Amino acid sequence: MNERIHDATLYEDIPSPEGREEKEMAVYRLLKELQIPYERLDHEPMETMEACQDVDKLLHIHMCKNLFLCNSQKTVFYLLMMPGEKKFKTKELSKQIGSARLSFASEEYMVKFLNIHPGAVSIMGLMNDTDKRVNLLIDEDVLKEEYLGCHPCVNTASLQLKTRDVLEKFLPYTGHGYRTVHLTGED
């Protein structure tokens, strides 16, 4: 097991707030309010998809790769959820959504719109996007999975959620829709 995971216990309840950021606790409270069950694994900071592999195994999920993107004018922002093992090809996505010159959005916008820092980008951040500045894009392969994995706005815990609960309960609560994209990850 990865040395970053000291305790492989899976939790299904709201943790004690001691030592946790408020934005993380807000995710757990919202999931409870929306009656969305989850399993949680606490761990050391995970900043790469490779580091998440043991988390994936313990939670029986495929952790999503979450990319925060924008157009060249920095006027349109996207959160892309795709399978962690797929390669991201800007040109492939740009063509599908009709937006030339996509790039990674800066941390400044990530914090401003989603209240998230690099390494913790997650669909859960949409609960903080009250002005609906971020457009959600989901690769069709993510939608085929019964469960999805994400961070609760921090990269020291990971969640297993039913994909259906995220689509049918969480997103309507946030007021965000989503657009399905087909990414091959091929050149």
From TrEMBL:
Domain of life: Bacteria
All copies of domain YbaK/aminoacyl-tRNA synthetase-associated, residue ranges: 43-167
Pfam family, one: tRNA_edit
Entries under InterPro entries matching the protein: ProX/PRXD1 (IPR040285), YbaK/aa-tRNA-synt-asso_dom_sf (IPR036754), YbaK/aa-tRNA-synth-assoc-dom (IPR007214)
PANTHER family named among the record's database cross-references: PROLYL-TRNA SYNTHETASE ASSOCIATED DOMAIN-CONTAINING PROTEIN 1-RELATED, YBAK DOMAIN-CONTAINING PROTEIN
Stated family: Belongs to the PRORSD1 family.
Protein name per its UniProtKB record: Prolyl-tRNA synthetase associated domain-containing protein
Organism this protein belongs to: Suilimivivens aceti
